[in-house]
TrEMBL record:
PROSITE patterns: GNAT (PS51186). It comes from the Bacteria. One of its GO terms (molecular function) is acyltransferase activity, transferring groups other than amino-acyl groups. Residues 39-190 form the N-acetyltransferase domain. This is GNAT family N-acetyltransferase. Transmembrane segments: none annotated. It holds the Pfam family Acetyltransf_1. The lineage of its organism: Bacteria, Bacillati, Actinomycetota, Coriobacteriia, Coriobacteriales. Gene3D superfamilies: 3.40.630.30.
Length: 207
């Protein structure tokens, strides 16, 4: 996604996917293709998310990748979603990965990002659609919906997620969300007011 908007106060939020039609096929913009995971993508993956401000440093990103994704190589190959350009260079990423925010392991959208040089071409939307389709393929009907965690600084991404059918999580604090249960609801409401205000202002701004 875009680089984080650091002018916004940092408040983590969650979104869940509402009912949606089956996704038959996902196409990328001309000049791009989906690619299967290969070890050569590890370094570009880390550098991309450092560039986007989602990881603090290359060294910490490598350590994170090793203890998270490389702890389950089979899931990494199956659940990493990559978009590359015509030269095979990484342009964007997404994945499905285990999250335990609701008290038990459950797949969630993980680490969506598009290189700034390739943004505003529809890559993020295609990556998300591919991720949703993969979830529908892997998770039986009737299970809890796909979810994602994000933050106020990613308000642009929140607008895209909404267009894809995700809705703000408004329930009680999930057991492993890592916030204060006594202030969670108030902070959550404040976060979505801030996000909605930015999205409305953006929609009114001249193109």
């Amino acid at each position: 996604m875009t680089v984080l908007d650091t002018s916004m106060p940092h408040i983590p939020v969650m979104m869940t996917l509402g009912p949606h039609e089956p996704i038959a096929d996902v196409t990328l913009p001309e000049g791009y293709r989906f690619a299967a995971w290969e070890p050569r993508f590890r370094e570009p993956w880390v550098r991309l998310h450092v560039l986007l401000g989602q990881l603090p440093s290359y060294e910490e990103g490598v350590a994170y990748f090793e203890r998270t994704y490389e702890s389950d190589p089979a899931a990494l190959e199956r659940q990493m979603v990559l978009a590359v350009d015509g030269d095979g260079v990484l342009a964007g990423t997404s994945s499905l990965w285990r999250g335990d925010h609701f008290g038990k392991p459950r797949l969630r959208v993980h680490w969506v990002g598009v290189d700034p040089a390739h943004q505003r071409r529809g890559l993020a939307r295609a990556l998300m659609l591919r991720t949703i389709a993969l979830y529908d393929e892997l998770v039986p009907a009737g299970e809890p919906p796909l979810y994602l965690t994000t933050q106020t600084e990613s308000w642009v991404a929140c607008g895209m997620y909404r267009k894809l059918g995700f809705v703000p999580y408004r329930g009680p604090m999930p057991p492993n969300f890592g916030s204060d249960p006594e202030t969670f609801c108030d902070k959550n409401d404040k976060a979505w007011r801030l996000i909605d205000d930015r999205l409305r202002n953006c929609a009114r701004s001249p193109r």
